[in-house]
Target: GDP-mannose pyrophosphatase
Amino acid sequence: MRKPFQFSKPSWGVVKDKKVFETPIFDLHEKTLDAPGQTLTHPFYVLQAPEWINVIALTPENDIVLVEQYRVGVDEVTLELPGGMVDDGESPLEAAKRELLEETGYSTDRWEMIGKTSSNPAILSNFTHLYIAYGCEKTAPQDTDGSEDIAIRVIPMDNFLDLARNGTVHHAIVLAAVAQYLLRERRSREY
Model:
């Protein structure tokens, strides 16, 4: 077994943390930090957000269940994994099961956590928990909230990986899940 990575840089101390704006999805904080070895201070801005989840949902045929939806940030339609926010009092796994069912109508009892990723640690406070859901079957109608307009796409995994490779799938958190999935597949072949 390889030795764990040893970080050499110390953490910075928070001198001041002030909430400057609040939304239903995130809060914007202005932070003043004590950076070891630095004499210049300036404000840092952090989006405090709840934990998120993403699901690689595989059917019994090993096809992957995807969601197609418009994303206002990039002003285009994207192809993504089912995912969303972890609600208060909910575990990441509970959120993954709920989001998969709501967004796609698919469900399963076979779940595996394959990792977590920080979406952008420079400005976001949260992590995205990544899951594989095996043997997913359509068990209910879609039950999206008022702001979601989602088309469900079920395609072979190899086609999905080609779409990730050629840039059709470009959502960073989705690509992080793909990387964890491929690393998991590689590890399982090595043992």
